[in-house]
Amino acid sequence: MTESITAENRGESVRLSDVSRRFGNLLAVDNVSLDIPAGSFFSLLGPSGCGKSTTLRIISGFEFPDGGQVFIGDEDVTRLDARRRPTVMVFQNYALFPHMSVKENVEYGLKVRKMKARDRENRVKESLDRVDMGEFLNTPVTSLSGGQQQRIALARAVAIEPDVILFDEPLSNLDVALRQQTRIELKALQRRLGLTSVYVTHDQEEALALSDQIAVMRNGKIIQVGPPKQLYNEPESAFVASFLGGSNILTNPKDAMLFTGLTINESQAVAIRSEHVQVVESGGVEGEVLSRQFLGMITEIELMVQGTKLVVKTTNNVPDTSHLSVKIVASQIVKNDL
Asked: I want to staple 313 with a disulfide (CB 3.0 to 4.6 A). Which of 2, 57, 168, 274 is the partner?
């Protein structure tokens, strides 16, 4: 019987237990524990150098942890090399073979696994059809656009039917419009295949749009894990609130009381989403306009309000004046980890 990809194929869960990785004096991954459900889209989000790519490489087997364990399904794969793990990586630079055609690139992993020629042909066709690239079967990959090359890299990964597919900032080389289009396609494909997907990015909008769950990382540690809406609406710390969508962070108790009426201590801060600072005609606190940025659907305004800088995201019908009155409509107390 010909082997084929089916919509019923589902990935395996991934579990990291107290995983650490050190490079010299740098503790790149610091006692990380994660539970990634089978078939889910899970993102590792954080600034450059926070340990997210190293964590991904530990899952893939390209790096071994100095401590802790890695499980895929019920199997402990901590010491298995990458070739023996049911994972596949989609890289930022696509890692396609430039001297090969689209077909040859996609079937490469199938040849390594010694799949029969007839089965390889069917699998390659199905994989390319899934990413709408079937008509490019014999095209040299060097003649393709960046977005098309990204699709070929994804088809090659899907073709070997991994239990877990790993993405290391795969859209960062694409322009804005193509990146948005590709992430919609990527999410739809992941849903159809039911593959467990672990996605590394520093782009918070990308993580929010794609993910079932997000782990926010900083300095090798997991700061908070949860569904996108929960992380955005209920950040536990000032870092998460400011990194995931941007927030005004008040650490001075006097400022917190003045603007929000909330009482905080030195270990706490108040997070105020910029969209929760509203420009009002009356009943607010007046501030001096320091800068304006027109961003299409919204305008971002930086104000100095009684010695405190506040960023406001508002509609484009705000008066073009040097002073504006604002009112805080929502805020919350978070851990002060800045």
From this structure: 274
